[in-house]
Amino acid sequence: MTTPIYEARGIVRSFGAVHALRGANFDVYPGEISALVGDNGAGKSTLVRILAGADQPNEGQILYNGEPIHLSTPTDARRRGIETVFQDLALANHLNPIQNMYLGREVMKPGLLGKLGFMERSLMREQGKAAFEDLGATVRNFTGPVTAMSGGQRQAIAVARAAAWASEVIFFDEPTAALGVVQTKGVMDLIRRIRDKGVAVVLISHSMPQVLDVADRVHVLRHGQRVAVMESSKTNVEELVGAMTGALDGKEAA
Amino acid sequence: MTLTTEDGITSRSAEDAVIRRPLGGRLSDTLKSQAMQIVLVWLGIVVVFSVLSPGAFLDIANFRNTAISMSILAILGVGTTFIIITGGIDLSMGSVLVFSGVMASLVVQGTGDGQGWGAAIAGILAALLSGLVWGLINGFLVAKAKVPPMIVTLGTFVAALGLAQVLTGGIDMRAAPDVLVDSVGFGSLFGVPSLVIIAGVVVIIGIVLLNYTRFGLRTSAVGSNAEACRRVGINVDRQLIKVYAFAGLLAGLAGVLNLSFFRSTTIAGHSLTNLDVIAGVVIGGTSLFGGIGTVFGTLVGLAIPATLRNGFVILGVEPYWQQVVVGAFLVAAVYVDQTRRAANAGGSSGQSLLARVFPRKRKSQEKESKK
User: Which architecture characterizes domain B33-341 according to CATH?
Assistant: First the structure.
């Protein structure tokens, strides 16, 4: 394979006496879905927060397109086309889907009006709708506040918002934890479509069958380290659980 | 009830899809309709008084007086609407108004004979600057020091009034240039009082700012979910400081109008102004929990008490009854807001005010929309 679009090497992160990450490695390639699995406390969330720019490692390197980078804020990551969908979705509930999509990235009118703070509302509406449709995220109501929408639809809006801005890498932190069967399938379809556009997708999930179904590769974290990388077509739930719990010690990967 | 999987994510069930679509259009106008319902309430009050006392109430001079009495509150109401949309509160605006008036009067007194446009402009700038500074203090303490807005503005409410009394020795100042009193305080353009024109301009600026600019969008967003704003890189603290500074600036402007209308700094006259303004904002449909609100609603929310007071005076009812009625309105408005929030949290749609007050009617509406 070519260079990973995004790579973490030897990431160490401690909170006082708690060693959340002890030299964790991670890599993801364009057009690939990489799943990140591990038991509670294995360090998944900490690793994602670091790769999303929300937290800084004590030691270790982050490589973007093979170049070492330093992320001090989530904005640093977003500027490079790296987006994250957190579990709480982070939608402004009283705003509509379009306003949420452009929140913090409003398109301003040119010239004096823009300097006065006026936004290109019709342009954002058109492009926003197109972005939702592009992913097949059928949002029925673009003008109502998202608070009145179903959990599945809110998830779709959060996913589509991240996908619209993620040109390179997108992280999903347990995107289906709160969803029913039908909505889960919808989100998984969205994730596949994002991958098909050539974006590198990182999926954090507790559902092993789901991970094996959708991911191309599975990274297993245990005690703050990556203990295995498996191709999902060549592994099974038992093997993954074994790696997570330490029953298969000695299969340390890269 | 069949499960549809064509797009999976959007439709929980066929029933969902059927209900959501027709209600969606109505939902989109929740805010507007909320304001429109308040307008209907106000029109109802106007009709009742018009029928009871057609001669005196339906008089242009009477409407003009009501409008004048509202104009200063409306200017304060615009700033307070923005603050309450962020989930905050401002108790200080009455004192900031008084303080700004005192500063204007002091500056006017200090400029030679204290007359002419030079003195007037110096006074106006002094008042605006005073209001802006108080607003910045409020905003900084709320955003950076993380002191709850109610405590911060209660503190500045007391402190600004105290400072105004220190500066004047507690005795009202009367230095105001005649040009200012004649043009702003009692002037009019095409029969419309200057105070009403200025308040109208401020209200329109407020509406445009809230609905069409990034400042307005981010104000709603911060009140809706500050953490989400931080995640997308919005500087929440700076936005809050801007909003409180904007409200302070408007309180400074209100101080100028107050000085030119009363020809006095009215030190003792604004201890309850903050409650009048907050009541108007809340009656107008702005949620105390943040995220939702309209400037137009605030205008109507202020018009209801003003009209009631005016109508009661004309009818010879003791004006104290007005306070009782306004109090009831305030509680009812918050009740409606609570119900709306509960309905939204349950994934249901926003219903009209009438439908919430009369639940039986709501059911029939739901049936209608299912068809």
Answer: Orthogonal Bundle (1.10)
